[in-house]
Amino acid sequence: xxxxxxxxxxYAGVVKxxxxxxxxxxxxSGSRDELxxxxxxxxGHPHPEDxxxxxxxxIPKTDVFELFxxxxxxxxxxxxxxxxxxxxxxxxxxxxxxxxxNPRRIFEIGTFQGRTTLNIALNSSTDAEIITLDLxxxxxxxxxxxxxxxxxxxxxxxxxxxxxxxxxxASKIRQVFxxxxxxxxxxxxxxxxVAFIDGSHAYEYVLxxxxxxxxxxxxGGLIIWHDYxxxxxxxxxxxxxxxxxxxxxxxxHIGGTSIAILKI
Length: 264
What we know:
The chain has 264 residues and is α/β, with parallel strands linked by helices. 35% of the residues lie in helices and 17% in strands.
């Protein structure tokens, strides 16, 4: 019965958001940007570097049952999502992956409001350590590489990680700040069990973050990327890594989500 209610809530939430987006939401520039991204995702898109056409989603698919079977995770704020957030289903997938891997150290690039960070904390062991890296608003004009224009609003926020601040699970979470292109990852080398990449969606940043994270995840660990099907920079970078770098040819796209994963 509870599963049916969960599905009904999910359906109602989707209908509500779609109705809003296609009506008064069109008055909001953010809503229009999101619709444009969705259109681009399913109509093809030129390579962000040289403009040549690319096949958007070439990475092989896997599904949640192959990965972890039944849902056994805990959630908070799962139905509270909007632009810039993981969807309800994606948050559940990430939470279940964390629960299955039982990581002792997790590294996240891109804190935003901390909704995913909090749910990672809720599904990790009591002795787990979660490091979450976010770009402070004051460094927006001095990033080492260009970020996407549509990302500026996610950086210009009053509080980073507001969802977990003051929460009991926050004791596991350590916030660090900086530009992932210049941040020193040396102290985390070969020590991370699960990494979540959801920082800048610009092509060069996705390549940078993927390379940096690969150096800190230990054997047997897991890398999770968000927005593979949503942002051209993400799918172009991941497609390139999948096709041209043997270290990344095990990447898989989780069906029904914008999540890609790599087991190290």
